[in-house]
Amino acid sequence: MKIAVQEVTDLNLAFGGDMxxxxxxxxEIPQEFxxxxxxxxxxxxxxxxxxxxxxxxxxxxxVETQKALRHVKAIxxxxxxxxxxxxAGCAYLLSEFFHDVKYERxx
Length: 107
What we know:
By secondary structure, the chain is α+β, with helices and mostly antiparallel strands. It contains six helices and two strands, in the order ααααβααβ. The chain has a two-stranded antiparallel ribbon.
């Protein structure tokens, strides 16, 4: 599945956006991301619990790094859906938007 990066407003960043537009349904997220075992799940977990510093993102062709990160950050900041769905979805989206990332945990 090819997922397009969505526009995210500052309000969406503060309170989360429309999850129907930003986050794939849980059953459409590949199992590797739902089982919390991919490298992207670790990135999401580190970002959520510790923050990332000195992150160097390697975007896929046609992906604007800041726009893609705003998309993912709006999901992470949302009160819905369950954490497991958000983590799996964010990990999946990062894998769709980026080839790789190098970073340090902030805490």
